[in-house]
Amino acid sequence: MTSNKSTVFVIDDEEAIREAVRWLMESIHLPTECFSSAEAFLEKYQATQAGCLVLDNNLPELSGLELLQQIKQGEKPFALPVIMMTGQGDIATAVNAMKSGAFDFIEKPLNEKLLLDRVKQAVAYDTEIRRELNERDSVMKKVNTLTPREHQVMLKLVEGKSSKVIARELDISHKTVEIHRGRIMEKMDAASVVELVRMIIGTGIVTINQ
Fold first, then answer.
1. What percent of the chain shows pLDDT beyond 90?
2. Which GO annotations describe the biological process of this protein (predicted)?
3. Could you name the CATH architecture of 145-203?
4. CATH number of 7-134
């Protein structure tokens, strides 16, 4: 289980359900890995694996809801969106699942079209979240190449301040600010200050309100 290709992970103690979901997912060319218990899944899953988790609530030992709460509240990063399978009319479990961080829920007996739609949405969401995280990591690596002074100048640029204002506030010359600005743009691989602002806000280093 080391591929980064989106995979649908299925946890259900009923083999017939597991195989039905596997067949359904593979009909749209989505790789599927099935587990009969929450414990078996936890032993093998790695947080870097993309896709989504289709999780039954009524599992032996650790229930689906307990697993969901454990992985969402635990120290180990867990970005995988979870679709909880509940019994028909089991509103309480569905509500608790959503409160605990489930992406969505679906009632048994499973509606094939509805399940496919939910899985496609979850996989698309997971792909976008991972793309944003990768982009943030890339920007942070560039930020970490800046000197302390360049970092100061960058933050003031992002605040919308001119080189003259930055020079006055940092008590350095206008020419020095321009030199720092050029190095910042080069190191950050930003074509404009507008692009730099977008990159930095995306990392959470500064917010729009700052």
1. 65
2. phosphorelay signal transduction system; regulation of DNA-templated transcription
3. Orthogonal Bundle (1.10)
4. 3.40.50.2300
